[in-house]
Amino acid sequence: MAVLDAPRIVTSRLALEDSHTLARYLATGGYEALRKALSMHPEQVAAEVDQASLLGRGGAGFPAGRKWSMLRPSEVAYLVVNGDESEPATFKDHLLVERDPHQLVEGVIIAAYALQVNRAFIYLRGEFALGLERVQAALNEAYDHGALGRDIFGSGFSLDVVVHPGAGAYICGEETALLEGLEGKRGFPRIKPPFFPAVQGLYGEPTVVNNVETMSNLPWILLHGGAAFAALGAGRSTGTRLFALAGRVNRPGVYEVEMVKNTFRDLIYDPALGGGVPGDRPVKAFIPGGVSAPWFGPDQLDLPLGQDEVAGQGSMLGSGSVVVFDDRSCAVRAAWRITKFFSRESCGQCTPCREGSGWIERAMYRLEHGGGRVEDLDLLLDLCDNIAPGLTWPPQQTTICVLGSSIPSSVHAAIEMFKDEFLAHVEKQGCPFD
Amino acid sequence: MSHLRVDLRQRAEELVALYPRPRSAMLALLHLIQEQDGYVSPEGIDEVAELTGTTPADVRGTASFYDMFHLEPVGRYVVGVCTNIACLFAGGEELLAHASRRLDCAVGSTTDDGLFTLEETECLADCGHAPCVTVNHRYVRTTTPEAFDAMIEEVRQGRRDHEIPDHGTLVRVRRNGGLRVPDEVIVAERAAAKAARARRLEGAG
């Protein structure tokens, strides 16, 4: 049975009809964490977050406190929130921006104070039309409430926050591409080094880029203390985390669960969570952390939901998106569709990614739709090896950003796990599941 | 003479003022052009170039990178059906094929009456309601062919216009005023905070 007694850190208000309004936010303890933070020294606020050992919730899982400590001292610095949520089957930030925008805004103000930054931008993917409205409305209310603008709550700290609309580009979730979008350019990831925007970010100035969920955790951490947060979970995976569960489950949705204390099996089968597979069919495979992650089989269902636990088995918890396949889900079709996505979203700067994704997509298409050959399996593995040499995990990188090295994950896993299915596609000259 | 309507021109200038550099307003301004013209029109491109201090070629080159910007006219309602992984498992491909038959329009094209454009989209982050369907980027949550048909009929009759505005992602986004913290205040605050921190470190040391 799942362990579900942990506090709800970021989803406590989501079920309320008016959860997005200032009135509801204030009635449920809103902006008290900010008042507390402003009564502390900035470095004390940063120390609480460091003690919480909050891992970034965007995908890479980099410790937020460490990222903050890398901010290069400068006369001008920025805070940017990454709300470009576009990893397929990831839909947790969508919920947070629409249903609890004040929690996000309060987190942003706390972070800006800790970092002593006076300009912040919230980058939301352009498809979040309602999210953009809700976050802007929350910012307007926060200004009127004295939580934003000059001399916040009489503290002597001032901050302006601007919400910035994206316009449909997966790659802008990559932080340096996001900064290019924020500078009004094509979303081309920047060449590394410099590796960290904290050294050279927006307009070349030091910039901290944090995910929506990461920011939304801050009010709770300030109110209850970093130690209380760190007491949840285990090892490096502290606190709770949002899991976006999709695919072949009875109750797809976003669930907040304590890190490590539950397993993938709990998430998929617990009646309060995924509620099992429709028709009680068996789980054939699942993607543990977004389509950039290698797949897992039923043997790994009892793996705890923790960053290092999943990494140790050769995949990643990534964006917190879990997609379930049952025995009637076609692995070839799934891997083809994921590759089609990468091919479409490749920005085109690097040859292995731009050309490789298209080649793989075309080979996978013909396997799925008729015209596949036995040699295609070797061809596919060779193409994957050209993008991420050695097909190791974590992958070797031949491209400016990790979109390239994410391409082989699904195809490689599908061939390793379901070679017979590929051969059946060749034999039938089409999809045996049709 | 501005191509943007007076009210949109004012919003455009307010958006530019929110950023340290005018070019940063590029994506927001292109959304405003689509709000007025239904697509990124050549006249709109010229105006965005003027507002951002760039060239029309630069604006077009930027706009062409982003899926939401249409460089050619589209229908009044852009219908998006997702077929990515979560929607694939929920019948997204079948729903897209149904939509194409129902609207009598190939995927990626516009109906003869200019009312609908049908697009196959990538993940729109609403996978709890798969397959995901949007109209002008509003989630309509019609996951079955029957619900889709009923929705299309309502849209055709204009009965959904209150929740599905024309092509304006920012059509209801209004900031109540510009930036409140002038640069000189930032400079003064940063200097004061730095001095206070130095005193604390000295006191602690």
Notes on the structure:
The complex is a heterodimer of chains A (434) and B (205). Chain A has three domains: 22-230, 3-Layer(aba) Sandwich (Rossmann fold); 233-326, Roll (Ubiquitin-like (UB roll)); 331-428, Up-down Bundle (de novo design (two linked rop proteins)). Chain A has 18 helices and ten strands. Chain A has helices spanning 22-27, 32-38, 42-52, 64-69, 92-99, 101-115, 129-145, 175-182, 212-224, 226-230, 264-269, 307-311, 331-345, 351-369, 375-387, 402-406, 408-417, 419-428, and strands spanning 78-83, 119-124, 160-165, 207-211, 233-234, 237-238, 240-247, 253-258, 283-287, 321-326. In chain A, the strands form three sheets. Chain A has a four-stranded parallel sheet, sandwiched between helices. A four-stranded mixed sheet of chain A has the order 8-7-10-9, with no helix packed on it. In chain A, a hairpin with a 5-residue loop joins strand 7 and strand 8. Chain A starts with 21 loop residues before the first helix and ends in a 6-residue tail after the last helix. Chain B is an alpha+beta fold. Chain B has two domains: 1-73 and 175-180, Arc Repressor Mutant, subunit A (Orthogonal Bundle), CATH 1.10.10.1590; 77-156, Glutaredoxin (3-Layer(aba) Sandwich), CATH 3.40.30. Helix content of chain B is 45%, strand content 8%. Chain B has eight helices and four strands; from the N terminus they run ααααβααβββαα. Chain B has helices at 6-17, 26-37, 42-52, 56-63, 85-88, 92-103, 145-156, 183-204, and strands spanning 77-82, 116-121, 133-135, 138-139. A four-stranded mixed sheet of chain B has the order 2-1-3-4, covered by helices on one side. In chain B, strand 3 (133-135) and strand 4 (138-139) form a beta hairpin. In chain B, helix 1 runs antiparallel to helix 2 (26-37), helix 2 (26-37) runs antiparallel to helix 3 (42-52) and helix 3 packs across helix 4. Chain B is globular, with a radius of gyration of 22 Å.
